[in-house]
Structures are given as structure tokens and as C-alpha cells.
Amino acid sequence: MNFTRWSARLPGTQRRAAARDDQGSVPAARGESAQPGSAGAHPDGTPRKPAAAGASLDTLPARELLGQLPAPVALLHGPEHRVTYVNAAYTAAFGPRVCGGPAAEALPELAELSLLPLMNQVLRTGTPRTVKSRKVQAGGSYTVTCTPVTTGGTDGEAGVLVYATDVTDHAEAAERLRASERRHRETAVTLQRSLLPQDLEQPDDLRIAATYQPGGTDAAVGGDWYDVITLGAGRTALVIGDVMGRGVRAAAVMGQLRTAVRAYARLDLPPHEVLQLLDVLAAEIDASQIATCVYAVHDPNEGHLVYASAGHLPILVRDEDGVVHRAEDPTGPPLGTGGWMHTSGTIALPPGSTAVLYTDGLVERRSEDIDEGVGSLERALAGAVGAPQVVCDRLMRSLGVTAEHDDDVAVLVVQHPARTGTSAELFHNASLELLGGIEAAPRARAFATGVLASWRFPVELCDLGVLAASELVANSLQHGTPPMRLGLRRTDRRLIIEVTDGDDHLPRRRRAEPADEAGRGISIVATIATSWGSRRTPGGGKAVWCEFELPG
Q1: Peptide bond preceding 330: is omega within 30 degrees of 0, i.e. cis?
Q2: Helix (H, G, I), strand (E, B) or coil at 362
Q3: Which of 140, 153, 135, 218 is nearest to 182 (CA)?
Q4: Dihedrals φ, ψ of 54, to 5°?
Q5: Is the separation of the CB atoms in 253 and 245 below 8 Å?
Q6: Rounded-to-10 torsion of CA 261, 264, 267, 270
Q7: What is the pLDDT of residues 202-261, one digit of tens each?
Q8: Cis? peptide before 482, omega within 30° of 0
Q9: What is the CA radius of gyration of the chain?
Q10: Residue 200 and residue 210: Cα distance in Å, rounded?
Q11: Helices (DSSP H) in 286-421: which residue ranges?
């Protein structure tokens, strides 16, 4: 059988044969002769004839070439792939093999490498095929090429030459790299999840759920985050953001920004002022890590969200009738860019409505514009009903987010429930405009006494509420300016008392000396109430409030 025509086409044989030819020609050039028997023998024991000096590649027998190849080689012919030849490297790798039998029985390692169907395809199409880095049970990984050949003789029977390359070292190195990447990703995911809120705060007037889905194994973990912060007096801050980066570094930056947002939120500043502070901090943390963020505040007395956006996607609100509204401008550049004055906007959130805050992983696809993704989310939200977590899950499914998604996804769903029946009876509001100077104080006490009694609070809570209202009104009358207003609000969990006036000087708690005639009001309120606080109002005044938890 003559292999000369196709042996020259094997990868690498030309170089190796040429090298041997050059080495063999050196003794002849020097007039030296090779020692008898130096040519060695074939793998089957028959003597190997020494090659003539200056022999060309076409005159070298294929058996000699294949026998000296360091890679395992096997030749098979016919539809049953009967074994015609295996070289010494093949025997060294897989053990002695008997020629003449079908490959399925004589060469079981080919079945382990899933080569039998591939060889059928090579015979049928006459096209070489290669499989990369297949592993055998005996150990080792191989890249195998199956090349069609035609044997000599009158029948011209087709065959397949199997050429295997040992890539065990490369495969083990790749596996170590993959294991390292998995550990790195698991560390980033663990850090990311630990920095997100473990239990969302649930305000009295809202129902909230959130979902975080890290990207698939081929996607590095990003810096998506969300948060819910109760501000007092029934107000709630809602935050969602995305650090434009991947891995542990992005997660660490995200944690710093989230912590800073919570600290700035305690100052009870307007949303645009919170983003202004956050913008400066983001540049100081890492100027190369740009982040987007939306910060919104819900006040149950106003029925809308006041928000500011730093390069983030718009808030979506679905009203009770299923109509979806998109928050419009103002939207500033991402955090960390600097040089921009953020502004606040509003979007209605009436009872029965649902708001959705989300990161770009939910709506961004490589094959379409991001506005199309936001449109798809609007359509999905229009038909999403049920509890907040149900809405979260439905939106994720509708937008095709799976465990193998190519980006992180964070979704925050906020519902303002429409209360009826007995549930509505637990929520009440009452207010009184404080007019007429110092005589407003007794009217405020009488008003608070009547309202708290009508809400059927225990006598002790009524007394504490009237005392707190009296002290807050007295503080406003002494240090504030008109217009002044006393507001009382009850929810299913707390009593809220708030006094507003036109002066923007915020009170602070201080220790009054025994001889002082003033300065004890805020200390009294802080002592008897569960919590208290103050904030500047958009109109230029201030609001001072306190809360009492209702008995369970």
C-alpha cells in the first residue's frame, strides 16, 4: 500500500521530513558512511531500509514517516472503519492494538473521543474534520483530525487517517484558568450580594420588592444596586444605580456609593442635591468608574415621586387602568463626570399605581436600540398585575432574562396600594392652619386632642401625642414664620405629627441650662417620641416631625 501522495499533506510532516532529509545528507556531503543497522526497524519488526542520500520526500515510504511521528496516528478503511495501521506513538498512548478489526472494538478510545460518527461523516463527505481537546478516561486530552484517504489497489477503498495531538498541558492550563475565573466571579457575586440590602424596608404606604440577577458564567459581575430608605414622617427614598465596570472592583465601588447614598439620605435633602453630593464622591472614589443612578422620594401626602437622574434609564409608572407613563427629563450625565447641576422632576404615583426602577441589563440588547428595550418593558408592565414580587418575576421573564443572561439585572418594583374597607380605616390625615399668633397654640392642642381621641388611640398615646404637637407648635411659633401648619397622620403602624412653617432654619437638640427659659421643646419631643427629625421644604421653609409606634 502506497501512502506517498497523501502523507505529504499531513500537518507538520513536510517540516519533519525535510529536517530528516537535511540530517541524512550531512554524512554524504562529508564523505562519511552510516553504520550498518543504524536505520533501525519498523514497528512490526521488519528491517527498515536506509534512505538513500539526497532522497526526496516523494520517495520516502509513508510507513516510515508515520512510524516516526511523535503523535498517535491510526489508519482505518471501509464503512466499519477496520484498523489498517497504528504507529508506535499510538501504541504508547493507548496500548497495543490489533489490526484488522473494526474500530468500535479494536480502538475503544475512538468511541471515548466521540470520533466514530465523525469518521462516518468524513467518509460520506470527503472533507477533513477536527475535534478539539477531547478527554479520555485513561488520562490526557487530545485534538484529533480525521482526514479522508484512498488506499491503493484496484478496489480504491476509502479510508480515514486519524491524527491525534496531545494537548493535555494546554487543557489543564485552560481548566486552571477557568477555575480561577470561577473563583473570581464567585467572590464578586458574594461581595455584590452582601452589599445589597438583605431585607428591604417596607414603608407603611408602599409595597416593595426587588430582584437582582447576576450575569451568566461568561459575563463578569457588574455593579448594579438598589435600596429603600425610610426618611421619617412617612416619606421613603428609592434608589437604583449601576457602576459601569465589571468584577470585584465594580462591586466595591457600588458598595461605597450605596453607603454614601444612605448617609446623604439621612440629611433629607432634595433628590438633585443628593446626586450633586454623590457626583463629587464618585469622582473621588475612582474617576475611571462611571456610574448611573436614580434617586426618588415618595411622600404619601403629595401622591407623587420627586426624582433626579444621573444618566439612568427613566422610571416607569403603571396606573390603575394599565396605562404606563415614562418619567421625562430632567436627566443629567452619569455620576463622576462633574460640572453638572442636577435638577429634580416629578411623576405621579397615585393609589393603585406601580412604579418600576431598573438597570440597563433588563432592556439592553446587542441586536436592538435601547429605546426598543424600554418599549418592550412598557408593554410588559402594562399587563403585569399582582404583588410586587410577582411583577418583578413577570418582567424578568417577559424581557427574556435567564441565568445565562449576558449582563447584571436589578429591578425595583414599588406599589402604592389603593386601600378600601377596613384597611382604609387605618389610614387617616388631619391638618390645621396655624393662624392668629400665640393664640394658635391652644387651638392646636384642642385640635390634636379631638383628632387623636376620634382615632381611638389609648389615653396614654393621646396624651403623648398632644404634648408632642404642643411642643412642635410652640417651637414653630417662637422660631418660625408664617405660613404655619399642623398635620396629623395615622397609618396601620404609627402616628406621625408634623409642623411646617416658612423659616428654613432647622432646629437641633441641645442641653438647656437650668436658668434657660427655652430650648427644652425638641429635647422633650425626642424623649417621648419613637423618632423625630426635620427637613427643608421646596418652598423655602421647613418641616419638623415626630413619630410614635402604635401598640401591636
Answers
A1: yes
A2: helix
A3: 218
A4: 75, 20
A5: yes
A6: -80
A7: 999 999 999 988 876 555 567 889 999 999 899 999 999 998 877 778 888 888 999 999
A8: no
A9: 40
A10: 8
A11: 370-382, 388-398
